[in-house]
Structure prediction request, 253 residues.
Amino acid sequence: MKKLLLLGTAISLAMVGVAAAADLPPAPPLAPTPYVKAPPPICIWCGFYVGANGGYAWGTDVGAITFTNSVAQVFTTTGTTFDAKGGFGGLQAGYNWQMGQIVLGVETDIEFASIKSDISGGVTGFADLYAGTRTLNDFGTVRGRLGFAFDRALLYATGGFAYGNLQDSISRTNALPGWIVSGSAQSGFVVGGGLEYMLAPAWSAKVEDQYIDLASHIFSGTYAGTAVTVQSNTLSDRFSTVRAGLNYKFNWH
Prediction:
């Protein structure tokens, strides 16, 4: 009898609880979760930069030079040949865009150089002696860059337009009237590659190799005091360079 009384009491209490719950107001809706914009991807290579560089250049040996004059004489130089080499230094500026690990950029540089070769010797079949110089006093490039970033390291290829003030001259030194000839090259192309490393948010250092082809040219001139002209074969104007540089990036923060 006591057990039945306890069971009835429990059922009565449960029914009262259900009725009370039915009388409660509905729970307020949950507030929507605010939208949080994802942070932008890290772009440590993006933006405008300027810098300085210095390096060493060496030219392709053009070999023996053959001359033909307007009276059908042909002669070829002997002895040393043009293989100009020397140092250079200058400034660069550029801009990079970064998409994930891919970095695209444009860069221009101008270099002041002391790249020179002095030559001397004789010519086949004649008693002539000659002396000459090849000098590249300044050059520059305008290039695109395509790189792959490994966090702070950027491995890249580069190529584009090259220009330079290349001057060659040769003159006969042992007799008058002597022959005096000269030539120059001004523009061509450049290809290369390099590695750049981010030292700090604003500073990076690079090492780079470039192959510069300023096309080709010929020597032309006259025998001094005469109307006889002289012209050479086509000469190549190619240089290889290695350089190190330091860049400052403006929008680093």
Summary: The mean pLDDT is 86. Residues 47-249 form a domain with the Porin fold (CATH 2.40.160).
